[in-house]
Amino acid sequence: MSRVDEIRAAISSSAKLGSIIRVMVLQIAEQVKAGDLDKADMCDIGFFARELIEQIEDTRKDIKAMKALVDKIACIKVMQETLQDPSKEQSMKGEFSSGRPHYKKIVTLPKKDSPEYQKMLDYFGVSEIGQKLGVASISWKRVCDFVSERAESGKTIPDFLPKVFDEFTVIHRRKQ
């Protein structure tokens, strides 16, 4: 069985398990509303619900990390192929989906009240009144977009940002 087949089977199993859990959750909620469960049962159900949430969260984090790694390596491969042959299309095609690499800059904003933060506010033209009243704020997402746009056009990145790094993702589309 290929890795693609394995992950497709896992999705199918996950969907079935999700359906079973949803039915169970609805049934428990109805029993609680009807007063059919005693405190001891509700205590244990609450405990095991917390355990289930932790397991699901851990699994979600593992899958997210694996996807980030796959996307990053896939983007790097597409970049390498494009550098070797600029006429090559910047996309990927699998049996079930197609993907397009997406690169952007991720930044860390300076700490508030630091000289770099003040420099950033001045750079973006946030007025002294807006700063003092706290009515003007900096959007992390917009700063990331701004830096990405500057990098794409070959312009310099402002020096007040403590950390700037590349994020590689793939925009996936299901094949018809």
In short:
60% of the residues lie in helices and 15% in strands. It has 176 residues and is α+β, with helices and mostly antiparallel strands.
List descriptors.
single chain; 176 residues; alpha+beta; 5 helices
Write the layout of secondary structure elements.
Layout: H1 3-34, H2 39-84, E1 92-93, E2 97-108, H3 115-123, H4 128-133, H5 140-152, E3 163-174
Antiparallel strand pairs: 1-2, 2-3
Q: Can you tell me about this structure?
A:
With 176 residues, the chain is of the alpha+beta class. The protein has two domains: 3-84; 92-174, no CATH class. It is 60% helix and 15% strand. The chain is built from five helices and three strands; from the N terminus they run H-H-E-E-H-H-H-E. The chain has helices at 3-34, 39-84, 115-123, 128-133, 140-152; strands spanning 92-93, 97-108, 163-174. It has a three-stranded antiparallel β-sheet with strand order 1-2-3. Strand 1 (92-93) and strand 2 (97-108) form a beta hairpin. The longest helix is centred in the middle third of the chain and has 46 residues, at 39-84. The radius of gyration is 24 Å and the shape is flat. The two termini are 24 Å apart. The mean pLDDT is 92.
C-alpha geometry? flat
Element order: H for helix, E for strand: HHEEHHHE
Distance between the termini: 24 Å
The strands making up the biggest β-sheet line up spatially as 1-2-3
Low-confidence stretches: none
Count of helical stretches: 5
How many domains? The number is: 2
* Main sheet overview: 3 strands, antiparallel
Name the average pLDDT. 92
Strand element count: 3
Q: Strand share of the residues?
A: 5-15%
Evaluate the radius of gyration.
24 Å
Class by helix and strand content? alpha+beta
Helical content, roughly? Answer: 55-70%
